[in-house]
Predict the 3D structure of the following.
Amino acid sequence: MSPLARRRLGRAALNAAGVVVFLFAVFPVYWMVTTAFKPNDQIFTTSFIPFPSPPSMDHVSRVFTKGVAGHSIWQYLFNSTLVALSAVVLGAVFALLAATAVARFRFRFRTSFLILLLIVQMVPAEALLIPLFTMVKRLGLYDQLLGLIIINVGLTLPFSVWMLRTFVAAVPKELEEASWIDGAGRFTTFWRVLFPLVAPGLVATSIFAFITTWNEFVYALTLISDQGKYTMPVALQFFVGQRSTDWGGIMAASTLMTIPVLIFFLLVQRRMVSGLVAGAVKG
Amino acid sequence: MTQMSTLARGGADTSAPSRRSRKGARGPGLSPKAVPYVLLLPGLLVIAVLLLYPLYQMVEMSFHKVGLRQIKAVNPAPADFVGWDNYTQILDSDLFWTSLRNTVVFAVVTVALTLILGTLVGLLLNKLGPKMSTFVVVGIMAAWATPPTAQAIVWKWLFDSDSGIVNWTLNLLPDWLSNLVFGHADWSGHPWFNDTLTLYFVLIVAVVWASFPFIAVSVLAGLKSIPSELYEAAKMDGSGAVRTFRRITLPLLKPVFSVLVVLSIIWDFKVFTQLYLLAGGTVNRDAFNLSLWSYAEAFSSPPKMGLGAAIAVVLTVILLLITFVYVRQIVKTEDDIR
């Protein structure tokens, strides 16, 4: 074989491998979405139906009208959005202040604080479930979305500070110095100079915190018992019945829940990697 | 009041030039030394109240008997101190060994598979052309973005006994082959979730599917950061592909790998959501891992919060030992931390 032909063959093999990886990754998601649009006789079948023919909106409209566990899926989408947005906004304020402190100042305990952040990030949320459950109960926040919001601020904060500090550090100090020389106060400098420049990083960090909160399952499961206050991940379970599962309904709901996450992921994918592996990846 | 604060602001402005020279001295009001602490305080409070105090409480509870009467919102009864009872009870329980086995075997297998697959895909992405690479990245992003609850549900559907696509595919195998490999040819109605072994098989597939994209994208980022001059130099010196990979790529990716390994171990050690959904809650005790066991003891009736907390302590201690390696690696590589 000539070198050119061998190179072409190699390229074709690589591309084929790429397609295989793509199919492996995408097929389950494809199957989730198509199942949502299949009428029941095409779902509960032993034959292979690659595409719903004709596509049916039955399940999608049913999860919105009849819903599950006594409420329309709107209710759960609303609860999830409320919890995630509130937790993100609260968390962003705390995170921005703390990130500015560690990125802009040298002070005693700075290293200790950063190491503390790393360690608490690694404590399994599942392990803190029991003490946080009793705490929430004692404070009278059991069965309230407010309790869930507060818990999620705590769960996402260490990572948010960790990720955000690199964005704050990336803003050149000279800009702030110029602003002080022009006579701006500390707050004006922060609000007019630092904040707009850190904003893209703050958005990326917030999106990450949003996804974490949106997906959070075990706290939502244990801290909420009123069905009208369930978040999406918890509500999904109720499509699974004792005897049979409403596969069409659950796939429609899962698809609805996945869409916002997927959009956000495509937006911040690159920044997320750099945040997670921190200094280990340079560049 | 208003007058006062205006005055203070004006006054500080005049004295600003003398302060500007010092680092951190940025304006009126606070003493410059206090600024970072004030900024840090709210976040530190959140961490202390929502993470550190519960951590302490978890340990405290693990030495007490905490039941329904102790967790009432009104007039909770004081918890009895039971010493190491909860821990001896864990060690005496058969569930400890099955759940520890499930936790460790699952983590080892899943971490290994995720890292191998993720690295291979990362290397592949690095070799592919820009268009094809973007295409594959967008594809694996779909798997990565699927929420854990949806992951579990989709894989449960794929492995459904009657209408699942996996059983349909396995039925396509020629009978002799299926008999040879699996010992039976008919897959119609074959259940996957009754037996712990096959349940964990599906769990491993689902978790590997969802977590290899992160490894692949990280490895790709690591590969891109290696200067191409190094490869050119290696080529000039007559180094072959395998040798270049072992001598240049691997050593330079080592810090990335050590972080990825530890993160994967930590994520897979405490897997809860997917297991909970695939196993159908806490009915199948044989399928427990440490997180699910802890949850089951604490939240089924009657609740045994102390015992559950003790199991959580065991899990946390194991994870913190692993975290130690991660923290050391980060402190070593991140100059900015010191």
About this structure: Residues 278-283 of chain A have pLDDT under 50 and may be disordered.
